Amino acid sequence: MALNKNHSEGGGVIVNNTESIMSYDHVELTFNDMKNVPEAFKGTKKGTVYLTPYRVIFLSKGKDAMQSFMMPFYLMKDCEIKQPVFGANYIKGTVKAEAGGGWEGSASYKLTFTAGGAIEFGQRMLQVASQEFYPGPPMMDGAMGYVQPPPPPYPGPMEPPVSGPDVPSTPAAEAKAAEAAASAYYNPGNPHNVYMPTSQPPPPPYYPPEDKKTQ
């Protein structure tokens, strides 16, 4: 879990480009059960909470010492959705610090959704977190994102398919297939399609031995 690692100077949240986001405003964040509570963890934080496939990010509003707070799923435990008779619904749990995260130890947290959304956010968070068994992507500069590797190059002419038992292969048919494959057109902009030429006529039909006897 990291402190003040996921916000920009302009007050925006920083996430990787591949992360889809679900967010709720009017959320309050509080901490307890900490030893030697750092100044940034004291009091009630007000802001927006974001859910991604790998973590929860809280972004404070105003000049709070805690501008952003990130909790990856693999460091969270004992998460619960609470619906008190009086007061707004909230999500609670515990989170551990990670190396280089700006704080040490562990803490209990409470996310109170003063304008609603705790149940929807909490259920979705538990669903996504149950699918994660490994750390999320590394933290990155907000101007950067994951770059999807280009598709592999076209491997070249494909060998003619193996003939079935009803249509045995002949040298003439194999030569035609090799010629057509060699002249195939590959479009780098659409790597999943290979365009075959249609100007050349198909090979002559094959006649089984029984048909030849009747000719």
Automatic annotation (TrEMBL):
Residues 150-163, 199-208 have a biased composition (Pro residues). SUPFAM superfamilies: PH domain-like (SSF50729). Coiled coil: none annotated. Residues 172-184 have a biased composition (Low complexity). Residues 150-215 are annotated as: Disordered. It holds the Pfam family GRAM. One of its GO terms (cellular component) is nucleus. GO terms for molecular function: chromatin DNA binding; transcription coactivator activity. Residues 35-130 form the GRAM domain. PANTHER family: WW DOMAIN BINDING PROTEIN 2, ISOFORM E (PTHR31606), WW DOMAIN-BINDING PROTEIN 2 (PTHR31606:SF4). This is WW domain binding protein 2. It comes from Cercocebus atys (Sooty mangabey). The lineage of its organism: Eukaryota, Metazoa, Chordata, Craniata, Vertebrata. The gene is WBP2.
